[in-house]
Amino acid sequence: MRLTEFHQLVRDEFGQMRGDALLVDHVLLGLGGKTAAEAIEEGREPREVWRELCAEFDVPPQRR
Q1: Residue 39: pLDDT above 90?
Q2: pLDDT at 64
Q3: What's the pLDDT band for 10 if we cut at 50, 70, 90?
């Protein structure tokens, strides 16, 4: 998954403003207590970060 696709999925699922805020404010325990933005910056794959966001916010499987 490309980073641009990741950002589009986040916007589509959570909305522009909420999605942007989630990336920098919400700590994901499954990523070692990092935010999505921190995890990606440190080299985690966008697909892995997307899966953690989906799990954390109970995104239905058909939209993952």
Answers
A1: yes
A2: 85
A3: very high
> What burial class does residue 37 get, using C-beta atoms within 10 Å of its C-beta: 0-12 exposed, 13-18 middle, 19+ buried?
middle
As a residue count, the chain comes to: 64
CB proximity list for 57: less than 8 A, separation 6 or greater? 13, 14
Taking alpha carbons only, the member of 33, 35, 34, 48 closest to residue 3 is 48
Neighbours of 44 (CB within 10 A): 17
DSSP designation for 28: E
DSSP state for residue 45 in the 8-state scheme = -
